[in-house]
UniProtKB/TrEMBL annotation, chain A:
This is Cytochrome c1. The keyword Methyltransferase does not apply. It is found in: Membrane. The chain crosses the membrane at residues 257-275. Keywords: Heme, Iron, Membrane, Metal-binding, Transmembrane, Transmembrane helix. Pfam families: Cytochrom_C1. InterPro entries: Cyt_c-like_dom (IPR009056), Cyt_c-like_dom_sf (IPR036909), Cyt_c1 (IPR002326). Coiled coil: none annotated. Residues 62-171 form the Cytochrome c domain. It comes from the Bacteria. Residues 108-131 are annotated as: Disordered. It comes from Sphingomonas jejuensis.
Automatic annotation (TrEMBL), chain B:
It is a multi-pass membrane protein. This is Cytochrome b. It is found in: Membrane. Belongs to the cytochrome b family. It comes from Sphingomonas jejuensis.
Length: 284, 436
């Protein structure tokens, strides 16, 4: 009885699936899928190496400080960093006094209340504060950015496929839509040309991004360590910095991991020998 | 509940004698997972996964309880409370990554455990109850994992909850009210998040309870073995401790090595980047996909694309997805072959390695792929095979198959080197067996 019902149910599902399959096949043949411009022009992130890559990866603190400077002087005009506190910057190699100075001199003050009247007010930031956002809310953010919302950057390198390589590729990937040719030598079709306020970037999934090229010329940011701030260097540095903002515990994760793996290898080796020893006299 | 030759618990210390006379818990443990449980001597490494699944559950409960001390189940702050765990709680990143990847490890070992049962016929008489309870555990795990994935309240949490509860809206007439009732609203929000957290905390303990029943039911007939031949005498068995505790100790080491490699060096490999974006009901992700362990079922769900008569495609997809699991409850009665181990079932074995395994792997890949051609057509093909395998092919095989000659007993097989205790000696499976 179970088998008869089973075979009937099975035939039902198989039949319905085969009907779906045949109908899908007919559609597939009669109306071949047209390759979209996104498909033809979208590029995967460039190959780029960061110090934090790999199981022994660590942060290059000089680079993180340079990347932080790029964030502060360029990105932070539009992008918030709401999960990172000023005190966290000590991990970049800044001293307590330097962190305090960074906090008090931050271009945007922290929101507060007037202690006498209770009205909304502002005050200079202290190290315990999270980095204050450039706009008070989403409406203000969109109003200032042609109705586009600049995403918060705290987790950006973990919330995009490709991670830091994607950010680096995007920052260095702006192209002139009029002269751009893809690998097949095709020009961007008219309907995919960037609209009002959009900018062509083949590393962006939609091809056209609302963010104007943020890094444009050598020397846009003056590095304290004397490194030449080419666009490529700035993009690399800020991408490395954004790995840190998304995963500040990466170094202790890697070093703990190495110790744990060594411990487990020894444990597993001993467990293997114990197993072989106990079973030595038993044919199995 | 054991073989007559099982070793008896004899308390050595007067205190243990005192305890044994009043509450014989040490005796229970001794008989369940100690020297008092005789086990076939020829179990191979595929028999490690039951213990490993128990270890995975323990890891999940321990890390989960500690995470719950810092997590806030409120739609307004849930995402930030998880990030606070990652940044400001001592070793919080380790706890959270262990819990998130622990779910994946739990499913990996349970899937291997299930396929062990399918290959060696562990679901057959007299172990049907073990199989049925195992499937109950699996269903509870799926519910727990789904609700746990909602808790960080990222984009995939929110949209996953919306899609999965949306499955209930496919039920005719009462579907929409059921979905609203389940969520406590018209879309996932605070009410849904709170009840998911409550149930996510409850269900692991229910799982632990069903595991007790699962092991109890297993100990009535005793463990199956690679030959599928029942234990005939003391020479066929060894005591669980120290023989299988030692073997499981090595298995646990390998399990922990893989687990640690994931936690420390690729913690987000099995996750989805979109879940690091806070939940936003106004922005739908380009591709909504569940966690990898649901992909085969997600592929089956999406494979139904044509309405047939009065049955909408969505309803058929939902029915098929649930049937894909429910049919396993009937497997002991669909497969009437008296031979358990596939090593002696030439036809079943071919369909297992060249039919079922590639199908499940393909469905897993297709469930994670975007819903476009040719993926949908391939899903339809493999989903059709999946149902045909269990509901049509297995009943037919069990009727027509002529099993290979079998050894007289486990010891007989061991002495001939055909016990199946090592993968390489189990005849032709050596090339196709996964390196697990």
């Amino acid at each position: 009885m179970v088998r008869i019902v089973g075979i009937l149910v099975g035939l039902g599902f198989v039949g319905a699936l085969l009907i779906s399959l045949v109908s899908g096949l007919i559609t597939y043949i009669s109306e071949p899928a047209v390759e979209t411009a996104e498909h033809a022009f979208h590029l995967h992130p460039k190959e780029v190496h960061f110090a934090s890559d790999g199981p022994t990866g660590h942060f290059d603190r000089q680079q993180l400080q340079r990347g932080f400077k790029v964030y502060r002087e360029v990105c932070s005009a539009c992008h918030s960093m709401r999960l990172v506190a000023f005190r966290d910057l000590e991990a970049l190699g800044y001293s307590e006094a330097e962190v305090k100075a960074i906090a008090t001199q931050w271009p945007v003050p922290s929101p507060s209340i007037n202690p006498d009247t209770g009205e909304a007010a502002t005050r200079p930031s202290v190290p315990a504060d999270r980095i204050p956002p450039p706009y008070p809310n989403e409406v203000a953010s969109r109003a200032a950015n042609n109705n586009a919302l600049p995403p918060d950057l705290s987790l950006i390198s973990k919330s995009r496929h490709g991670g830091a390589a994607y950010i680096y590729s995007l920052l260095t990937g702006y192209r002139d839509p009029a002269t751009y040719r893809n690998e097949e030598g095709e020009a961007l079709p008219a309907e995919s040309q960037p609209g009002q306020g959009l900018h062509f970037n083949p590393y962006f999934a939609n091809l056209n991004i609302a963010m104007a090229p943020p890094l444009t010329s050598t020397g846009q940011v003056t590095y304290a360590d004397g490194t030449t701030s080419t666009v490529d260097q700035m993009a690399r540095d800020v991408s490395a910095f954004l790995v840190w903002t998304a995963e500040p515990k990466l170094e202790s994760r890697h070093s703990t991991g190495i110790a744990v793996m060594i411990f487990l290898l020894i444990f597993t080796g001993l467990a293997w020998m114990a197993y072989r020893n106990i079973w030595a006299g038993v044919k199995h | 509940m054991s073989f007559p030759w099982a070793e008896q618990y004899k308390p050595k210390h007067p205190l243990m004698q005192w305890v044994d006379d009043r509450l014989p818990v040490p005796r229970l443990v001794y008989n369940a997972v100690g020297a008092g449980y005789p086990v076939p001597r020829n179990l191979n490494f595929f028999w490690n996964f039951g213990v490993l699944a128990g270890a995975a559950l323990a890891v999940q409960i321990i890390t989960g309880i500690v995470l719950a001390m810092s997590y806030a189940a409120n739609a307004g702050v849930a995402f930030d409370s998880v990030e606070r765990i990652m940044r400001d709680v001592n070793s919080g990143w380790l706890l959270r990554y262990a819990h998130a990847n622990g779910a994946s490890m739990f499913f990996i070992v349970v899937y291997l455990h299930i396929f062990r049962g399918l290959y060696y016929g562990s679901y057959k008489a007299p172990r049907e109850m073990v199989w049925l309870l195992g499937l109950v555990i699996y269903l509870l795990m799926m519910a727990t994992a789904f609700m746990g994935y909602v808790l960080p309240w990222g984009q995939m949490s929110f949209w996953g909850a919306k899609v999965i509860t949306g499955l209930f809206s496919a039920i005719p007439l009462v579907g929409e009210p059921i979905q609203v009732w389940l969520l406590g609203g018209f879309a996932p929000d605070n009410a849904a998040l709170n009840r998911f957290f409550s149930l996510h905390y409850l269900l692991p303990f229910v799982i632990a309870g069903v595991i007790v029943l699962h092991i109890w039911a297993l100990h009535i007939p005793g463990s199956n073995n690679p030959t599928g031949i029942e234990v005939k005498g003391p020479q066929d068995t060894v005591p669980f401790h120290p023989y299988y505790t030692a073997k499981d100790g090595f298995g646990l080491g390998v399990f922990l090595l893989v687990f640690a490699a994931l936690i420390f060096f690729a913690p987000n490999f099995l996750g989805h980047p979109d879940n690091y974006i806070p939940a936003n009901p106004l922005s739908t992700p380009a591709h909504i996909v569940p966690e990898w362990y649901f992909w085969p079922f997600y592929a089956i769900l999406r494979a139904f694309t044509v309405d047939i008569l009065f049955v909408p495609a969505k309803l058929m997809g939902v029915l098929a997805m649930f049937s894909a699991i429910l049919l396993l409850f009937f497997l002991p009665w669909l497969d009437r072959s008296p031979v358990r181990s596939s090593n002696y079932r030439p036809i079943y074995k071919k369909f297992f390695w060249f039919g079922l395994i590639p199908t499940v792997l393909a469905l897993g890949y297709l469930g994670g792929a975007p819903a476009e051609e040719p993926y949908v057509m391939l899903s339809q093909f493999f989903a059709a095979y999946y149902f045909a395998h269990f509901l049509i092919i297995i009943p037919i095989i069990s009727r027509i198959e002529r099993p290979l000659p079998m050894p007289g007993s486990i010891t007989d097989a061991v002495l001939k080197g055909q016990s199946g205790s090592t993968i390489s000696t189990s005849t032709q499976t050596a090339q196709t067996a996964p390196a697990a």
